[in-house]
Design brief:
- This protein is of the alpha/beta class and 716 residues long.
- The chain folds into three domains: 272 residues, Glycosidases (TIM Barrel, Alpha-Beta Barrel); 270 residues, Class I glutamine amidotransferase (GATase) domain (Rossmann fold); 94 residues, Golgi alpha-mannosidase II (Immunoglobulin-like, Sandwich).
- 30% of the residues lie in helices and 22% in strands.
- The chain contains 21 helices and 29 strands.
- The protein has a nine-stranded mixed beta sheet, sandwiched between helices. An eight-stranded parallel β-barrel has the order 1-2-3-4-5-6-7-8, surrounded by five helices. Strands 9-22-23-29-25-26 form a six-stranded antiparallel beta sheet.
- Helix 5 packs across helix 7.
Length: 716
């Protein structure tokens, strides 16, 4: 166990080598809507809660509303910068162009009152919120010219004409241009105003709103300067996501960003049913969820917290939400030592396939490929299921247009899940093969690797040999029964039913928006939520397989044919689950504006037994207690210290919680806990558990309302 713990910590230390630490009281900020009448309320809130940084719209800065914040000793950030007016400047035009835009939109006289600029949700240019398909490249003369220069041919005109490779070229081109333009703007700001900081807020709409490109988070670290401050606002309310969505996106982004600073933006709307924005529609939030949001961010790797947005309509200091907001900001300050200079550590990696996600567009929604929004649902619900089981997991991904670095990323995880990763390149397949040869474990599902990186059906899946399958055929069988094996002994004889493919999962996700929001969008002539399912859904089906002779059959269909296989490959093994239905992994999700129905106990138990069997005695910790508690592990920038975070999503306090740490007691220096609701630290005792081959320790955790942090210090 000590060796595993040190490896996890050393990975965190390596990634954090270039991280820019936030200064003490600069770990919290506020997005404000200032006015002469309301600014005193904002300033008082900042002073009382040790907040030193405020973001405000550039138009408000131009009106002179930043001055009073500066006079109060606060750093005012000029936000929502009109970067779209700089978007098409060529590199040689950028310096002069930036000056003109800032002078006109912010005002030369007001520059002295701000300490930095913020670029908010850069999705303009080559991504459109309202479109689900790529804009025809023939309509853009500049793109036509660049396309010809890059690919030595004219682009095709209308959708459906040309090859899948043509569509990939356009995706590649738009993605590359997007980042290059963004980089030019950032460099122009930094060169013209070197004394001011540059911040950027990343929106997940590039993955979840139907944006045609959005951003590829994997490219950020290699393109943009490291001294940029990043924030992320996952809109978990807007997209009707459970709260773990916030943690998943934070964890994924910060891991892909190579440990850069990444601040989380919490939402505390308390006075209106919805904001009136047709694409989002915020709903009234439970006051306790203000605290839970804060903890969710920090437990999954955020390096600071900001609140959005303070104005008289949605924030009242005397309200329950106002009190909770103050509590959460104070907690961030008090708990800083537990999460500063850390990165999330996990033994499970979930592969998010950019190829599968981005190439779904050429087929259209509800097609034979991945459906609306592509692979995100597959990875998302696998993450939720693991979260429900108190098993930390990270998302692993690779840049859409850069095939490099995947083996190094996979090596960090003893187990990697490929959730119906339909589109796969030869490079990805080789990386997964090498991972298995070196002793890794892969859990693969459905039509993984059935298509190439362009979305073209292959004669034989690229991972067929790894999965131990000779042939694949379709079947309509909709249940499996587990056989008696040494690998999953407690699943023997259990039966699980399923729908046959992810259709029902996609349908449930796409219809999550309330009727009032759909009606509003239709009135505004926006039909993004007006999804007509009949005739677009693929037929229900599952895969029937012919395994190689050396495969172990873990489960079978009613006709006794194999459904779940385990194949030894090199030093590792690949578990293949043939049913194309990740509702088998669908954990019960709580603490959400929508609360999808969870699986029966057997479904959750299948995934738990699978992970337990894969990790064995290498598992870092075991949780026992009430459901609805999420766990995450942060490794400090020291090889002998980590923090285990537990977040209670239930309305009632979490009782009778026990944690078993697979660490010999003589290797532990001490264990402290910090209770978010109580706001204080205390030592905790533990008892030794006799085990083989080594001893472990058991902690009994006191009742906790929101989150609790367990700090574990080992012998150096």
């Amino acid at each position: 166990m000590k060796k595993i713990f040190q490896v996890l910590a050393s990975v965190a230390a390596l990634s954090l080598a270039n991280n820019i630490a936030l200064a003490g009281n600069d770990v919290t900020g506020v997005f404000v809507s200032p006015s002469d009448a309301y600014s005193p309320t904002c300033i008082k809130f900042c002073k009382e809660n040790e907040i030193s940084r405020v973001y405000m719209n550039y138009r408000e800065v131009k009106k002179g509303l930043a001055a009073c914040y500066k006079d109060a000793g606060l750093n005012a950030i000029c936000g929502w910068l009109p970067y779209n007016k700089m978007w098409d400047f060529k590199p040689q035009e950028m310096d002069e162009g930036v000056k003109k835009v800032i002078s006109a939109e912010v005002g030369e006289n007001e520059l002295k009152n701000i300490s930095g600029f913020e670029i908010d949700e850069p999705n303009l240019g080559y991504g459109d919120w309202k479109n689900e398909i790529l804009v025809d490249v023939d309509k853009d003369a500049q793109l036509k010219e660049i396309y010809f220069k890059n690919f030595n041919r004219q682009p095709f005109g209308n959708r459906g004409q040309g090859s899948a490779a043509d569509w990939r070229n356009i995706q590649y081109l738009r993605d590359t241009l997007y980042w290059n333009k963004l980089k030019n703007i950032v460099l122009g700001l930094k060169k013209n105003y070197p004394e001011k900081s540059v911040a950027m807020t990343l929106s997940v709409s590039g993955y979840e709103s139907g944006s045609t490109v959005g951003f590829d988070i994997n490219l950020l670290d290699s393109i943009l300067p490291r001294d940029i401050n990043f924030t992320t606002d996952p809109y978990f309310q807007a997209f009707r996501r459970p709260l773990p969505w916030t943690g998943m996106m934070t964890k994924w982004f910060r891991t892909a960003m190579n440990g850069r600073q990444l601040e989380g933006v919490i939402q505390f709307y308390d006075a209106v049913k919805h904001s009136g924005w047709p694409f989002e529609g915020y709903m009234q939030l439970d006051p306790d969820d203000v605290n839970r949001q804060t903890f969710e961010y920090l437990m999954n790797g955020a390096t600071g917290i900001s609140a959005f947005v303070m104005n008289p309509k949605i924030y009242a200091p005397e309200s329950e939400h106002g009190k909770k907001l103050s509590e959460s900001m104070i907690f961030v300050q008090k708990s800083e030592k537990y999460w500063e200079n850390t990165l999330t550590s996990a033994q499970i990696g979930i592969y998010f396939s950019e190829n599968t996600f981005r190439m779904h567009d050429m087929w259209g929604p509800w097609s034979k490929m991945t459906g609306l929004f592509g692979a995100s649902f597959q990875a998302e619900w696998t993450y939720y299921a693991l979260s429900y089981l108190h098993i930390p997991a990270n998302l692993v991904s690779m840049a859409f247009n850069e095939e490099k670095g995947l083996p190094e990323k996979l090596r960090k995880y003893p187990v990697v899940i490929l959730p119906d990763v339909k589109c796969m390149s030869a490079y990805e397949a080789a990386s997964f093969g090498k991972y298995l040869e070196d002793g890794g474990i892969i859990i693969s599902t459905g039509e993984t690797s059935f298509y190439n990186e362009n979305g073209e059906l292959l004669a034989k899946p690229l991972l067929a040999e790894l999965m131990g399958v000779k042939n694949f055929t379709k079947t309509s069988q909709n249940s499996i029964t587990f056989t008696t094996t040494n690998f999953l002994p407690r699943m023997a004889g259990k039966k699980l039913s399923f729908d046959g493919n992810p259709v029902q999962l996609f349908k449930q996700q796409a219809t999550r928006h309330p009727d009032w929001l759909k009606e509003k969008c239709i009135k505004m002539k926006y039909d993004g939520y007006d999804i007509k399912f009949p005739g677009k859904l693929p037929e229900l089906s599952s895969l029937q397989v012919e395994p190689t002779p050396l495969c172990t059959i873990l489960a079978a269909y009613p006709d006794k044919s194999p459904a779940v296989l385990m194949n030894q490959y090199g030093k590792g093994k690949c578990i293949y689950i043939a049913p194309s239905d990740l509702t088998l992994f669908k954990g019960k999700v709580t603490n959400a504006l929508e609360t999808p129905e969870g699986p029966d106990k057997g479904d959750a138990d299948f995934l738990k037994q699978l992970i337990d069997s894969c990790l064995g005695e290498r598992k870092i910790f075991e949780y026992s207690g009430c459901d609805g508690v999420e766990a995450s592990l942060l490794c400090k920038n020291k090889s002998n210290q980590c923090c285990l975070f537990l977040l209670n999503h239930n309305a009632q306090p979490a009782e009778n919680t026990k944690i078993t740490l697979n660490i010999p007691p003589d290797k532990i220096v001490g264990i402290n806990i910090f209770d978010q609701a109580k706001g204080c630290e205390e030592k905790i005792s533990y008892k030794t558990i006799e085990g083989k081959p080594a001893k472990s320790v058991e902690l009994t955790i006191p009742s906790f309302k929101y989150g609790i942090i367990i700090e574990i210090t080992q012998v150096p």
